[in-house]
Amino acid sequence: MMNRLKDEASPYLRLHADNPIDWYPWSTEAIQKAKEENKPIFLSIGYSTCHWCHVMNKESFSDQEIAVILNKYFISIKVDREQHPDVDKVYMDYCLSLTGSGGWPLNLFLTPDLKPFFAGTYFPKQTSMRQIGFFPLLERLAKLWDREKETLIDHSEEITHGLINTYPVSDFNKELVNETQESLRQRYDIEYGGFLPAPKFPQLHEITLT
Prior knowledge:
Elements: H1 11-15, E1 24-25, H2 28-37, E2 41-46, H3 51-61, H4 64-73, E3 75-80, H5 85-99, E4 106-110, E5 116-120, H6 134-147, H7 149-166, H8 174-187, H9 204-207
Parallel strand pairs: 1-3, 2-3
Antiparallel strand pairs: 2-4, 4-5
Helix pairs in contact: 4-6
């Protein structure tokens, strides 16, 4: 199966183009489909040099059994955090609020209105002594959406309301943007490229600010 990611500019998204999962890129088309079909959204955010993103791709996103349940019960959206740092920032805040920790891959389950009701990072395919597996998690959330949808929606509303109160909207600060750009310029390694110090993982959102 070749999904919608094959023609995307992002190498990270194209990495998932041959997954059996019916992935969408971040788009109004995907969100509208979730609303029309009244399905929850599975949102997965990562980047091309993320180790655990590659591990989860091999263990779960390339797995036919995982794909069957995702394709039937969810609308799946794959996001490159280096293309959409704004989306990543919003949902990382949600994950930190829900779980107390964050990282990549960042995996969330949202209502069709994009409000999360469950979040986490890397999941193994099957449950271990330390962590719930991705496959049983999908089965459980699919059943909950079918049987207790209103409870999940109410939970997502509570989370969203709490974060709005925690992070009030502030005015755009041009001076702060200029200071950030200057800081990035000072940390740029002219001789070898990238930003100091090592490790120098590619950070597209930093490059676009400089």
